[in-house]
Design a protein that fits this description.
The protein has about 130 residues and is α/β, with parallel strands linked by helices. It is built from 5 helices and 5 strands; from the N terminus they run βαβαβαβαβα.
């Protein structure tokens, strides 16, 4: 089985570290960057199998990154991460092409369903099987 490559995009270093560590403990390869511009640079060099992106960041927010990704490579699934507990924010992300969204703060057992739903979504045949932490 090939290692799945996940790009974690968040301006909070602690969030990047927690998410990357959680995913790497399950066998995934993670690259973490602090904003949308850095994510663009990374995607231009190597296409990830999945992008987890915060919505509110400096330089380029998650929605602008999502729009760019939909143009650059529409097959890459994007899960948006937000601390804003407002359904309209989540719906806007979905409307613009996000596969799903996750609310902060992170609780590992709640994220399994997000990663399980990505399985089979893309032609890259993601085999994401993140178990509850």
């Amino acid at each position: 089985m090939d290692v799945e490559n996940i790009l974690v995009v968040d301006d909070e270093e602690a969030i990047r570290e927690v998410v990357s560590t959680m995913l790497e403990s399950k066998g995934y390869h993670c690259t973490a960057v602090s904003n949308g511009r850095a994510a663009q640079d990374h995607v231009k060099r190597t296409t990830p199998d999945l992008v987890l992106s915060d919505m509110i960041m400096p330089e380029m927010d998650g929605i602008k990154l999502l729009e760019w990704l939909r143009q650059y490579d529409p097959e890459v699934p994007v899960i948006m991460v937000t601390a804003i507990h407002d359904i309209s924010t989540a719906l806007e992300a979905i409307r613009r092409g996000a596969y799903d969204y996750i609310l902060k703060p992170f609780e590992g057992h709640r994220h399994s369903r997000h990663f399980h739903r990505v399985r089979g979504y893309t032609p890259r045949s993601l085999r994401l099987h993140l178990e509850a932490v």
